[in-house]
Amino acid sequence: LLLISATLVVPLFVLEWINRKTLFEDFPFVLFTFMSLHSLFIVLLLAPALRSLRAEKSLRALTFRQWVGLLLGAVLIFAYVDVVIDQLPCFLGVPNCD
After folding, report:
1. What is the C-alpha radius of gyration for the chain, rounded to an integer number of angstroms?
2. Rounded to two decimals, what is the model's pTM?
3. Which of 52, 65, 85, 96 is the most buried (most CB within 10 A)?
4. 66 within a domain of the structure (yes/no)
5. C-alpha triplet 93, 94, 97: angle, nearest 5°
């Protein structure tokens, strides 16, 4: 699960690291810590429901807790995408992007 969540953050981390070499600003460790935890929570919320769907191949197999996990996972996905869209100029190396 950690590997899956890392695939959501590592490409952006590499972009930021490469494009920020010429800028004299501190690296945004707080942003990437937040994004790493956020992506881990997304994977942890979605994994049980997706595992159940893969085994049963029916939406009726999902329990109430799994439906709640899917709903919260969807909300976190929208928030994660919003952060990525907001920070995309920074990842691409635009100076004074904040």
Report:
1. 17
2. 0.81
3. 52
4. yes
5. 120
Q: Is residue 7 part of a domain?
A: yes
Q: Are 67 and 48 a contacting pair, CB within 8 Å? A: no
Domain count, the chain: 1
DSSP-H helix ranges across 1-98: 2-19, 29-56, 64-91
Residue 5 is given by DSSP the state H
Q: What's the pLDDT tens digit per position in 30-65? A: 888 999 999 999 999 999 888 888 888 888 888 899
Whose CA is closest to 8, among 34, 27, 31, 35? 35
Asked whether residue 60 is domain-assigned, the answer is yes
At a CB cut-off of 8 Å and minimum separation 6, what does 4 contact?
43
